[in-house]
Every structure is written in C-alpha cells, then in structure tokens.
Amino acid sequence: MKELLKSFNLLSEEEIAEIYSVTEVCNLERGEFFIREGSICNVVAYIESGIIRSFYTTEDGEEMTYCISFQNSFMTAYSSFITGQPTLENVQAITPVKLLILKKKDLEQISEKSINCLKFGKFMAEKEYLELERRVFSYQRESAKERYNSLLLNHPKYIEQIPLKYLASYLGITPRHLSRLRTEMI
Asked: Which CATH number does the domain housing residue 17 bear?
C-alpha cells in the first residue's frame, strides 16, 4: 500500500506513514463476506492479496457481479461510504484475501490536518468515477469477447482463479456463452 500511495505523488512520507499507522489487517477466506447488503460501509480497504467481487442480488435471487477487484487496489461500497446509508451491494472474497482497512473516521481526521490527504481523497473519487464510466462504455461499445480479451490482457494470472459463473456475470453473459468464447480463443 505504501508504494501505491507513493506512486500518486500527492502525499509526503509523513502523511503516508500516518495513514499506514491507522490501518488494520483483515483476512478473509474464500467465500467470506467483507460487506453485506443492508449494512453501512464506513471503511476503505486496500487489497494486499487476493480477489474480491462486488455484487447485488436481483428480485428473483440472481447474483449479478458488477465489479471484480484485484491485488494492489482500493475498494469499498462507495455509495454507502459517501452517504452513510445502507449499501445495496455485497462484497465477497473469491480467493483468500488480505486487506488493509482504513476507517472513514480516521481518514477524515487525517484529512482535517492535511490538504494533501484531501487532494488524495478527491483524486481517488475521480479515479472511481472514471473506472465506472469506462465500465459503462465497455458495455455499450464492446462485445463480450472484447471485454473478456481486456480482462485477459490486464489480469491474466487472475482469470483462472475466478469461478466461471462470477466471470460470466461480470462480463454480462451466461456461463455457457463464456465457455464458447473460451473455446473459440484456444
């Protein structure tokens, strides 16, 4: 996490050390939930290792995976984190996961003392927005095959660890369609 924070060139060594000093470690087993629908999310997590999926459940009980987060990235139930309202999403470990947790109250206290931390928060919010926009555009402009190829290109070592049903849901296709895509690409 320290190296990722340094790479943004927004925070001093002291600010990074202060952020790191308030982190807590959380280990999740495969299938374990980090956040459940209906709870209020007041933390941000840095994924030190493992893979996490964010999903919601439709009215007919189907789980729709809309985000897969990988090692060396931050994640949260963003709407709930911002508003303090119960979340509509679930966040679950696909593999064993090690997280570094930052509580909202700690981040707010640090931000009150540091303009750089405030800038970092703004930067992260903008980054989240851009990722969401990219994802929406990919659904509108790319075929499922193109979205799958993009995943293969950007996260090849993780693809084999994601169960087919989660990967298919993330791509917006059925597991059968994903199997056909994989067969075509061999």
From this structure: 2.60.120.10
